[in-house]
Write a structure and sequence with these properties.
The chain is mostly helical. It has one domain (5-85). It is built from four helices and no strands. Helix 1 runs antiparallel to helix 3. It starts with a helix and ends with a helix.
């Protein structure tokens, strides 16, 4: 089984999708559908903070996964940027 960063990120995306589908199917009703459709049509920066925090939590998961790989291109870019600032 591949465990490179790309595949681990793909697995994380699958876990997100799977978790969302389980939640959606367990909470499927007219009120939820109306709310979700409204959220889909709303720009991120216009969402209430609690909704944006949920998205930020997902980004934190991605960043944590990326940071766990020493050979991460992103990690190298961040480190290179830090060196330039010194």
């Amino acid at each position: 089984m591949r465990t490179d960063l790309f595949e681990m990120m793909a697995a994380l995306e699958h876990d997100r999708w799977s978790g969302w589908m389980k939640y959606m199917l367990a909470n499927l009703n007219v009120e939820s559908l109306i709310r979700w459709v409204g959220q889909m049509g709303t720009d991120y920066f216009e969402l209430p903070d609690h909704s944006r925090e949920s998205d930020r939590d997902e980004v934190r998961k991605t960043l944590a996964l990326m940071a766990s790989y020493e050979d991460s291109v992103i990690l190298r870019l961040v480190n290179d940027h830090r060196k330039e600032e010194e």
